Amino acid sequence: MSISGKTAIAGVGVTAFGKLPGRSAWSLQTEAVKRAIDDAGLTKADIDGLLTAPPLAEPLLLHAEQLGGKLGLRTNYLSQKFIGGATAVALVAEAALAVEAGLCEVAVCVYGENAKTGLPMLFGRAQMGRGQAPSDDIAYGLAGGPIMEARAAKRYMNEFGVTEEMLGSVAVAFREHASRNPGATYRDPLTIEQYLQNRYVSEPLRVLDCTIGASDGAVAVVVTSSERARDLAKPPAVIAGAGVAANLQGLSDPDHYTSYPGARSAATAYRMAGLEPEDVDVAQFYDCFTSTVLITMEDYGFCKRGEAGPFALEGNLKRGGALPSNTSGGMLSEANLVGWNVLAEGVRQIRGESTSQVDDAEVCVVAGQGGFHAAHATLLLTKGAA
Amino acid sequence: MPHTLTELVAGAAPIVVEETRGYWEGTLAEELRVQTCNECGNVQMPWGPCCTRCLSQDLGSIVASGRGRVFSFTVVRQAIHPNFSAQVPYVIADIELEEGPIMTSNVTDCPVEDVRIGMPVQLWFDNEMEDAFHTKLRLPKFRPAKG
Ligand SMILES: [Zn+2]
User: Of A25, A86, B101, B110, which residue is most buried, by most CB within 10 angstroms?
Assistant: First the structure.
């Protein structure tokens, strides 16, 4: 039995992104929920499921319970998930399962925090590389995402002859999309020359290869049955396929440098949806790093191994290219909402609401990745039957 | 509640836990001990509570030769952890040990520009340090192998 086509994202709520002084995480989360409900043309009374991702800066054991209380909800389903950057996509998949199984009818999935101006993401950063006994890699100066990722990027580039220009072409394409998005944090045009002059954080990754720092903001989506979604305010983004895969050995697994568990989560999603990579019109990758995008493109079957770099260099990730990607600017230029902004843009593409709208976008893939290649989640969104 | 990064991670020493005590005891004796499974023969790093291949908890260890190759690496130009700001640029590398497993460490004693994937390296042990509970240990590190 497949859940394909049976559920849909019927509402999206986003707050402003960036620096939002004076806003608490709770105020951002509840605003996004209200906006998502309003967007779907529903009322609070319709919501009977709540699924949350706890804030990175302020991890709360009982986040879902507390947020539900602040929203004044009584629900038939409640969940809290944290699998890093794969959470957004995986939480929507879980909501779809809950709705399809009859555990609830209308579920809201939400994440938000004031990581930029409020409590900074100290906890996450401080813990990075910790708990990996015995190496406890922080003792070697291994703290922070770029160092984690750079070793994979280096191995990948070395193996397939990927150049710095190829990495940079990802950042340039996504910035071009961000320049048309009034809500994006970085909108100034970026040239490959500027990219190549940008300083390194952890070689081969430059500042411009890394997701922008923490952003304040929140995103919520409403998931319900496709049948119900068809009668609501906005065109549904039908969940045609989903997959959540993990390889939890991290970089002690040599395969992990050049491939992610995304190869398996995407295969599950394609099989469920009855779709092929060729059917995908637009992609929203988890772009924590430019290198991550290239490797995911190969995992997802858009390019053969080692061919994503040249493909990106040819401009194929831009609007008008073969695979327009991260059309809001993504986490490299729009905001770092840990993939939730990337998910929201996937829904906008299916609705025809993007500031870099792809003509006749029928199928959009959304990727989430967490824990430095450990967990990966894939969602295939479609317009569904007319 | 701590408010700065420095307070939060006061000291960047590893934390010795029950499953890794034998590993860190090895470092004091200048031995790099690689964990082995007495059930299936799996050789693994880092140490854990069970064999990642067969889940047996009947585990032992062998002393590594100390020879390995750089599997991948990065030159850190901007340290996120304040304890390492004065050390940039420095190399974090994943070393493929002669015994098979990969471990993360530093490559020292050469210009950062000279580090390459595939480069042969040799183990050495850094000065003695203490974890948060005053357990003594030494960090295994690597330098280019001679010859
Ligand atoms: Zn075993």
Answer: A86
